[in-house]
Amino acid sequence: MSRILSTLTVLIAVALLAGAVGPAAAQVEVPGGIDTATSPEPSTEIVIDGETRVTDWRYEDGVFVLQIEAEDGKPITFMSVPSKRGSGGGQANVKRQYVARGNNTVRFRAQGSDPVVTMTTAQSIEEGRVAYVKATTGIDLFRGPATWGYVWAAGGISFLGGVGAVLYYAREFLLSDDPEVAERVL
Question: What is the CATH number of domain 46-134?
Answer without folding.
Answer: 2.60.40
